[in-house]
């Protein structure tokens, strides 16, 4: 590792505090721990279990059938409870109802409530096992006992959509606490716990490529000399050589949600969406997939939180029916389909070549054609979407004091703006133009002037004060700041994102 700190765990204090708040509530309780694959949910739960004697942790395995899962479960629970009752029962009688009934008995005999952590729930609840139905029935008694805290965790959004949020879902309405989300690491955390010697521009770019996912960041830091090698060599070794984990990673993510039969179409759709987004009409035209199939898969991608619709705030206020554009939500999937996919064959053959250096087009900075400009805009949006820290520099510079705002875009026949922040309470419309510009390039007067001249034609009933901000990857530059002030624009620099 590139740092002496525990990179897998230290940054998770916010999630830990939320979990502890749930555990401190009186009586029994049930909640869900959510987050994408590789985000660190299992690490968090295992850490919790290792620090508390009253906590039972069990993780499902993708290749284990229901019989094997039950065997592993009772072995683990017997060790946890120091109770061999289940071990002495014949296999054909070891049903989930019997197992759950025994857990209740153990809990009732325990002085304090026991905590049960069920991880990778989509692999525990095997098809035809009846696990979820039995768990629902058991929970009714568990809750009455006041002696069991249950946390259910998993990486499949499809599972939660089907089994919890659907109107006929077997686990619908059982939770006693709101879902707890494990989020990607912030820019500050990536810098502090992984790459303390890298520049802020480099930290931004690695986040734009990998999205702050611990497992991916560790792939970069697996070599102890990462910081000594520098950014380009470290990224090249981890991502653009034969041994990389990243070519297969797209399947690891999508296989959780889609069957093998639909995988080809899903990849075609996501590749067409890329980083710039696409309408349903464009997806049909580019992929050759039928309209009905595209509509069906788009609905699934939306439900599984893989893509999202981009909101044009002003057009919505005018009541315009514009073509809806879809965008990929996950930074790594964007990077894979926009950039990495086209390098697949070269990466498979590359043992030591410097492919990443060839990808960086600018000799004076880290510019990746058809990627960094839009990815920088998406990075800023992601920071703004995580509204829990209004003390962060970016929020202060934007003078945002309340999390009650909408994010969107604006476009008409003459103008297009990257990010619109519509703050209802403050009656202010903040407009952000994102520019990925190398620290060695000059932000010209013309760029700022052109931005200042762009207009937003507000509907008459949509009265807002308009404030304009230019966010750039440049390090702080007083001359640029003063130039912005001259044209009534506040310039935000890369430091303001940390």
Describe the structure.
The protein has helices at 13-24, 41-51, 66-81, 96-109, 121-124, 131-145, 157-165, 187-193, 200-210, 214-221, 226-229, 231-239, 246-254, 260-273, 280-287, 291-303, 313-318, 331-338, 344-349, 355-359, 372-385, 393-397, 445-453, 478-486, and strands at residues 29-34, 55-59, 114-119, 148-153, 180-181, 278-279, 307-309, 325-328, 406-411, 416-423, 428-435, 465-472, 489-492. The protein is α/β, with parallel strands linked by helices. The chain has three domains: 10-181, P-loop containing nucleotide triphosphate hydrolases (Rossmann fold, 3-Layer(aba) Sandwich); 248-343, Arc Repressor Mutant, subunit A, CATH 1.10.10; 379-498, Trna Endonuclease, Chain: A, domain 1 (3-Layer(aba) Sandwich). The strands form three sheets. It has a five-stranded parallel sheet, sandwiched between helices. The chain is globular. The model is unreliable at 1-9 (pLDDT under 50).
